[in-house]
Design goal:
Arc Repressor Mutant, subunit A; about 240 residues; 2 strands; about 5% strand; 3 domains; two-stranded antiparallel ribbon
Length: about 240
């Protein structure tokens, strides 16, 4: 059995498995075998059920796939495993208002996380990687905040059909019928391909021609995204 790809799907499979196991319970390896979820996903869902007071360590052991003793998890006494677990969205953590402090702490945490897996890299190499990481992170945050700013102004933006068709041509996207949305999945795929092909970093800084192609691909995707948003806004306003 293949595991369902969504968190809710994997959670449902784990719940079904524990209901079916009853008093016999399940080890992590057994859960993976009967539910179809991977070991990592199964461990995460098991920890979640334990935290919610739905399952407990029975105190019994059974051999794992590696021949070691593994804990057997069972449903808590008098508890019925529900069909669905509603997990409220966790509030966002509080962060500093100082950009300088924010980037310094983020950089320290990421480096500490990576060093756990690669502890033997010298400090000089770490410094180079840290600079590259800073640049990549700032680029991601800048792109994200720019998209938010554009989204806030989308309701006032009207993309002419001619401009949309030009953007489709740039990204090799089949043009939609009148008043129909653009296939953004195709557009996104082609934008990523063009970005990798013409990104300045892929050409030692790039030429004026490659930079213009890179910028054209990014702009074309923005146009198509705004065009679809305008269609949705107009449709909801009717």
């Amino acid at each position: 059995m293949r595991g369902r790809k969504t968190t809710e799907g994997r959670r449902a499979q784990v719940l079904d498995a524990f209901r079916a196991a009853g008093e016999r319970g399940l080890t992590t390896d057994e859960l993976e075998a009967v539910s179809g979820v991977t070991r990592n996903s199964g461990s995460g869902r098991t920890a979640e059920l334990k935290r919610l007071g739905l399952i407990k360590d029975s105190g019994r052991k059974r051999p794992s796939n590696k021949g070691k003793s593994a804990s057997v998890w069972v449903i808590c006494d008098g508890v019925e495993i529900p069909d669905v677990i509603d997990t409220p969205e966790r509030p966002l953590p509080k962060v500093t208002n100082s950009p300088k402090v924010f980037w310094r702490e983020l950089r320290r945490q990421l480096l500490a996380f990576v060093k756990q897996s690669h502890p033997n890299i010298d400090d000089g190499t770490w410094a180079v990687y840290a600079q590259e990481m800073d640049a990549d992170l700032r680029g991601i945050v800048s792109h994200f905040t720019n998209r938010i700013a554009r989204a806030k102004a989308l309701s006032a933006v009207v993309i002419p059909r001619r401009r949309m068709l030009d953007a489709c041509d740039t990204l090799r996207v089949p043009p939609p019928a009148m008043d129909q949305p653009v296939d953004l999945e195709v557009a996104k795929k082609n934008k990523r391909h063009a970005s990798r092909l013409y990104h300045p970093d892929a050409h030692g800084g790039g030429t004026e021609h490659t930079r213009s192609l890179f910028e054209a691909a990014i702009e074309a995707y923005d146009v198509l995204e705004q065009y679809n948003q305008t269609l949705r806004s107009n449709s909801n306003g009717r």
